Amino acid sequence: MFFKCALQLSLSASNLRNLDILSKSDPMAVLYVKKMDGTLEELGRTEVILNCLNPTWIEKINVCYQFEIVQNLVFHVYDVDTKYYNMSVKALKLNEQDFLGEATCVLSEIVTKRNQSLTLNLHGKNGPGGSKNFGTLTVHAEESCLSRMAVEMKLRCSQLGNKDMFSKSDPFLRISRLTESGKYVPICKTEVINNNLNPVWRPLYLSMQQFGSKDNPLLIECFNFNSNGNHVLIGQLHKSVSELEKLHKERSGANLVFPTHRGQEKVLKGQLFVDQFIGKEQFSFLDYISSGFELNFMVAVDFTASNGTPRNQDSLHYIDPSGRLNSYQKAIIEAGEVIQFYDSDRRFPAWGFGGRYGGTLSHCFNLNGTNAYEVEGVQGIMAAYANALHTVTLAGPTLFGPVINTAAQLASQATSNDITKYFVLLI
């Protein structure tokens, strides 16, 4: 799964330390993302709020949320010296300001909250702990979206011109949007309906991101499909989404036209009709996550002999004393560390298959060697896997069925209890 979207983070703080003698602190917040090498990359700054220990900053900070990456955020709050008030916040040298506190979190922790707000305790540069109270920082995330509007349309044509010699045309529609450069860019197309001059296509679903606005001109072209890719234009017309909605309300058709060499258009008998037009609100991945939808992580490890004896360095199951991860450990870490933030209890089912467990060949056994199939967190999976390498004998053959059936049974039990969960099985 790959998902990206633009977020705006709003920040507020409570009970900040007062570092000014004759007035209150003048706080500003700075947001960083911690990169893989541990360095901090600045993403943005708020404005400075004068004489306030409980600020609510107006300036939003933009962040690109990526589902498949663990995005570690670091927040710093500073008291800005009065002599810098007339400077742009981007020009401020942070080492010349007084440090008020730091907070850290993972972006996933914010977006999984039901109100997409997370309150963090501020602490000193040496990390959490100590007797000092640095106050709290609250972060609220909102998805940056032009519009959630989408439309579902059911289109049909009548009396199309026939472009085939020994049968009827095989028509399909292609819809394109006019860009700022004056060119049309395809945004969707229908399926092909064979041998039919009065086709009715399956409903089309278009989002505002695709068509731009309801008044943006769309080019709707009807082609006769050819398997060699040289599709023949039957006719076309220009209509906006608003005009298509009007056709639906009036239950009228619009004539297709055919462009001529002289730049003119020949009006055709064939017409386009909009039999269904439904405006819909489009929900994003974050809407589901923030409303309580959970992702549940499950792992099944292959213990067939084709992996090689774990004691040998060329084995996929080799545990390197230097700490270098083998292929299985890498997969568990990379998938588990992302998904764990979307599972409230962070208890993960973990199985093995294709090995002799307790002397008996099994294609689905609990990885931790007990009657409980769940382990605690990603580290629990890692520990159970490492222990199983000492207790399980590699065998075969490779059969996925028992593990998939067990996972499917768990998923079906969850849906029967009206719990909104999505299960991810890593084999």
TrEMBL record:
InterPro entries from the UniProt entry: C2_dom (IPR000008), C2_domain_sf (IPR035892), C2B_Copine (IPR037768), Copine (IPR045052), Copine_C (IPR010734)
Gene3D superfamilies cross-referenced by the UniProt entry: C2 domain
GO biological process: cellular response to calcium ion; defense response
Gene Ontology MF terms: calcium-dependent phospholipid binding; metal ion binding
Topology term for the membrane: Lipid-anchor
Domain C2: start-end pairs: 1-120, 131-255
Location of the protein in the cell: Cell membrane
Matching CDD domains: C2A_Copine (cd04048), C2B_Copine (cd04047)
The organism's place on the tree of life at top rank: Eukaryota
Keywords assigned by UniProt, alphabetized: Calcium, Cell membrane, Lipoprotein, Membrane, Metal-binding, Plant defense, Repeat
Stretches of the chain forming a coiled coil according to its record: none
GO cellular component, one term: plasma membrane
A Pfam entry, by short name: Copine
Keyword Cell membrane: yes
Keyword Amino-acid biosynthesis recorded: no
UniProt cross-references to PANTHER family, sorted A to Z: COPINE (PTHR10857), PROTEIN BONZAI 3 (PTHR10857:SF120)
Family assignment from sequence similarity: Belongs to the copine family.
Protein name per UniProt: C2 domain-containing protein
